[in-house]
Amino acid sequence: MNIKLSFRWYGENDTIPLQYIKQIPGVGHIVSAVYDVDVGRVWSRESIRKIQSECQKNSLSFSVVESIPVHEDIKLGAEHRDEFIENYCENIRRVSEVGVDCVTYNFMPIFDWTRTQTEHLHSDGSQSLVMYKDELSGLDPLKDDISLPGWDTSYHKDEIRRLIKAYAGIGEAGLWENLEYFLGKVMPVAEACGVKMALHPDDPPYSIFGIPRIVTCEENLDRILKMCPSKSHCLCICTGSLGCVRSNDIVRMIKKYAEQKRIAFMHIRNVKILNEGSFEEVAHPSECGSLDMYEIVNALVEAGYDGYVRPDHGRMIWGESGKPGYGLYDRALGASYIKGLWEACEKSTSGGRS
Ligand code: DNO
User: Is the dihedral of CA 217, 218, 223, 226 positive or negative?
Assistant: First the structure.
């Protein structure tokens, strides 16, 4: 079967051992990162090698980095951006030395993914992340002390306020320019190292508190891809991030970018859209949410997609506790479901021949 099935592992501090991950049928690749270094700094070769050797001890391969985070100075086009970009490039060189050939990153100002709750209790006793957009209305991070799940807790409130003002100053136009500048510097290095850079969409794909977000929809993804022709300049299509607003036709996007060979990494998960902007994360199968997972996998198989795939956020089930979205059980169910769909799509595409 032609699926490069991977699983995210948060390194030594992850409560889920690699040995357990290895027991999930079909998982051969690990998605990880160096977590003991501040954003923008160079990762030590020793830490990188250690991840690879731990994986190899379990017959797994450390193939994907998620993420090398992009320093705010780069996104803001601030004074020290060139130093941070040079460090970024050095990290790409270093991870490629141990065989990593895909690096995920995002270009979201200040915050990565945002939800209103990470442990929402469902009627069946499972828990998952949810975004109820209404709960954000009326809040103003410039005045109120807000801390939402997913936000980097290393920022002090004053730092967040300074950054929000700085992003207001550059606006969306500035963010576009700074992305183009970053791509222009980083892609030649990634290409020379044989690394595909997979840009993760904004999650959720709309602006929160007026802070600009641009990796949000097909039109913007087209524009981003046109900015730089390098074959290393690719996307990470996260079905749950892009797919939580109805205006994004996720299957069409996958068909288009997979045919263009511009997808390097797939995060596959399902969401139940409640109303525009509000959604609940649900189990992977189509019947549990708003996305058609068969159509998603079929689009990839038909386009001959050969990049990495991972199950994305799972619910907390069977009494498990741990990092929200990143427990073992429901992600393992997701992996098996994706693998099952993949096998069915491959066999039907090849007329029953495997
Ligand atoms: C959330 C993840 C994101 C993703 C980054 C990529 O669970 O999908 O945090 O890793 O946005 O840079």
Answer: positive
Q: Using one digit for the tens of pLDDT, what is the confidence trace for 17-74? A: 999 999 999 999 999 999 999 999 999 999 999 999 999 999 999 999 999 999 999 9
The share of the chain scoring above pLDDT 90, in percent, equals 87
Q: Do the bridges between strand 263-268 and strand 233-238 make them parallel or antiparallel, or are there none, so unpaired?
A: parallel
pTM over 0.85: yes
Residues in a beta bridge with 255: none
Residue 179: which H helix or E strand, with range? Answer: helix 157-193
Q: For residues 11 and 34, what is the distance between their CA atoms, to the nearest angstrom?
A: 8
Out of 70, 75, 186, 200, give the residue to mutate to test ligand 1, the one with the largest number of ligand atoms within 8 Å of its CB.
200
First to last CA, the chain: 7
Measuring from each residue's beta carbon to the nearest atom of ligand 1, which residues come in under 6 Å? 66-67, 104-106, 112-113, 200, 238, 267, 313, 325
Q: What is the pLDDT of residues 258-278, one digit of tens each?
A: 999 999 999 999 999 998 889
Rounded CA gap, 109 and 69, in Å?
A: 11
Q: Is the dihedral of CA 318, 321, 322, 324 positive or negative?
A: positive
Evaluated on CA atoms 176, 181, 184, 187, the torsion sign reads negative
